[in-house]
Design a protein that fits this description.
Layout: E1 2-6, H1 9-19, E2 25-30, E3 35-38, H2 47-56, E4 72-79, H3 90-93, H4 104-116, H5 130-144, H6 150-167, E5 169-174, E6 179-184, E7 188-190, E8 198-202, E9 208-214, H7 216-228, E10 237-241, E11 244-250, E12 256-264, E13 267-275, H8 280-289, E14 291-292, H9 305-317, E15 352-360, E16 366-369, H10 371-374, E17 379-382, E18 385-393, E19 398-402, E20 424-429, E21 440-448, E22 458-461, E23 473-475, E24 481-488, E25 506-510, H11 511-520, H12 536-543, E26 547-553
Antiparallel strand pairs: 1-3, 2-3, 2-4, 5-6, 6-14, 7-8, 8-9, 9-13, 10-11, 11-12, 12-13, 15-16, 15-26, 16-19, 17-18, 17-26, 18-19, 20-21, 20-23, 21-22, 22-25, 23-24, 24-25
Helix pairs in contact: 4-6, 4-8, 6-9
Length: 554
């Protein structure tokens, strides 16, 4: 939902904070160069009616409209709703929990956390209603024998962070189904092949996910199948709308079944989920996460309610473990299990587990590297400063990092045309950091215009590379980037698995692919105007400043 547009990012930010301080908004740069202030997402089949209702209440301007997002080329910043809450201190931590100060993103985060605890049965939609309130109460009484307090939200954040990191759970938009859900990218395997379903299983639980698209008759058969499996005294759960259906059942052995369907493009998209009774929490979390259309991944703002809770809780736990304030009691006591509150987890400094290379590609501090360099890292650092991953592509093996802009910083320029066969080239990077410890420069030639097995997105080079070179720039004789280091063929390894002892069989992603990846993610690559041949020493001096060491921490 686009609330307003302004010609500059600063003007959009100022307007968002002036007029939309009670809303979570995101500012995007659009195709025409202006900056759009966007609010919450609306369901495509209900957007006209929803817009009309909001305008009638005066909640949004009369010229607000919905967009599919194709005109939004780059996310500039997210601004959390401001409630003028004072920073939390010890007393504030032990005050009664209130959702009133939470942003939409923070509510989604806590809803999923409560679902993984087994307490929440609603949708992860950021709408904090009676189901969310009951779940928070159940969690607080079970774990801490008290009514919900502010610091309990910090405990939920810590716990959810552990769960998400363990199996790399992230939101995924399935473009085939036009639905989104959390998915364990670090722990899954394909299920038994089927003509009707795409089947996937969670590697660390009994959670099974089956996806399909079909006619209304096929969808009705699937929902009947789920309801026929119900074998409990209470009724099976069902929800039906014109283009939407949900059915949930519990089998005689306690196992869970759930199906969610929606009409998209004349066919019904369905996600059928099952799990054993002992995996109820994971089952609840996955089914709660299923959402129509595309949604953002989980996050919460640096200056928001949850961040304040965590900061205050960590400051206090440095003094002594947190204890609940039992003077705060609910008006009506629930059945509680007497249990000592769990202390906050010990804060462990992240450990560097690997390194790679990268290079600066914009004046705004963007850094390009390989996807496999950043995959699985809980934190990334360049020049001692933390970075975040803006975009990654496993197919191209490229990742775009957001660094900090520095005045006068060197920025790599790309060659205006592909490098010809047998042309001279230079590779820069930071290989074998534990042994070499500094920038390494090697020279070679472009030995093939294609990669392994004829891959047209890569090229083969003879410049020696080692572990840690991945993501570094390959430059031509003028210092312009013509590729990104990606891999080497190890001695004794052929594509077919047979033995061979060839050396210097190394590969790089072609510069044209790197430029395409940058453009797709809102960064305009700088292109060298004149190819001026440099002496080797001068070439290294030009390329070294924009080549960076990328450190991976867990």
């Amino acid at each position: 939902m686009v609330l307003a547009s302004r010609p500059t990012a600063d003007e959009a930010t100022a307007d968002a904070r002036l007029r939309w301080s009670k809303h979570d908004v995101t500012i995007y740069r659009t195709q025409n160069g202006w900056y759009a202030i966007t609010g919450r997402t609306l369901r495509q089949d209900d957007q006209k009616q929803a817009l009309a209702r909001l305008k009638a209440r005066g909640a949004i301007p009369d010229d607000a409209f919905c967009t599919s997002g194709k005109s939004l080329v780059k996310r500039e910043r997210s601004i959390a709703a401001s409630y003028n809450a004072a920073p939390l201190d010890k007393q504030g931590l032990f005050s009664p929990f209130s959702e009133a100060q939470m942003s939409y993103a923070e509510k989604r985060f806590l809803q999923l956390a409560l679902a993984f605890e087994g307490d929440y049965t609603g949708l992860v939609d950021g709408a904090w209603g009676k189901f969310s309130t009951r779940a928070m109460q159940a969690y607080a009484w079970r774990e801490f024998n008290t009514a919900p307090q502010n610091w309990h939200s910090s405990m939920l954040v810590f716990r959810l962070a552990e769960i998400l990191e363990a199996d790399d759970w992230r939101y995924y938009h399935n473009d085939w189904l036009k639905m989104s859900y959390i998915f364990p990218f670090g722990a899954f395997h394909k299920g038994t092949p089927s003509k009707t379903f795409v089947n996937v299983n969670h590697a660390n639980s009994s959670l099974s996910i089956s996806m399909t698209r079909g006619t209304q008759a096929q969808a009705e058969r699937l929902h009947r199948y789920v309801l026929d499996k119900h074998a409990r005294s209470s009724k099976a759960y069902t929800a039906r709308k014109t283009n939407y259906a949900v059915s949930a059942a519990r089998q005689a052995n306690g196992d869970y079944l759930y199906i969610r369907s929606r009409m998209v493009g004349g066919l019904w998209s369905s996600i059928l989920t099952s799990a054993k009774s002992h995996d109820e929490k994971i089952f609840r979390a996955f089914t709660a996460s299923i959402t129509d259309g595309k949604v953002s991944n989980l996050y919460f703002e640096e200056n928001g309610y949850l961040a304040q809770n965590i900061e205050a809780a960590l400051a206090l736990v440095a003094e002594k473990p947190l204890e609940p304030d039992n003077s705060i009691q609910p008006k009506t006591a629930s059945v509680a299990v007497a249990r000592k509150p769990k202390p906050l987890p010990r804060v462990v400094d992240p450990k560097r587990v690997g390194t790679g290379s990268g290079f600066v590609v914009s004046d705004a501090g963007h850094i390009l590297t390989n996807e496999h360099v950043v995959n699985g890292c809980s934190m990334l650092k360049v020049d001692g400063k933390a970075l975040r991953v803006l975009a990654s592509d496993k197919g191209f093996d490229l990742a775009l990092l957001q660094g900090s802009a520095e005045d006068g910083a060197a920025v790599a320029q790309f060659a205006s045309a592909p490098a010809p066969l047998n042309s001279d080239l230079t590779v820069l990077g930071y290989p074998l950091q534990s042994l070499l410890g500094g920038l390494n420069v090697t020279r070679g030639t472009l030995s093939s215009l294609k990669g392994m097995q004829g891959d047209a997105t890569e090229m083969q080079i003879t410049a020696p590379i080692q572990p840690g070179n991945s993501g570094g720039p390959v430059v031509d004789s003028s210092g312009a980037v013509i590729g990104v280091v990606v891999a080497k063929l190890k001695p004794g390894q052929n594509a077919d698995g047979s033995l061979d002892l060839r050396q210097n069989v190394n590969f790089a992603i072609r510069g044209e692919i790197a430029k395409l990846f940058l453009a797709q993610n809102g960064v305009t690559p700088q292109v060298a105007a004149v190819a001026e041949k440099l002496e080797p020493v001068a070439l290294a001096a030009r390329a070294a400043p924009f080549t960076k060491l990328v450190e991976c921490y867990k």
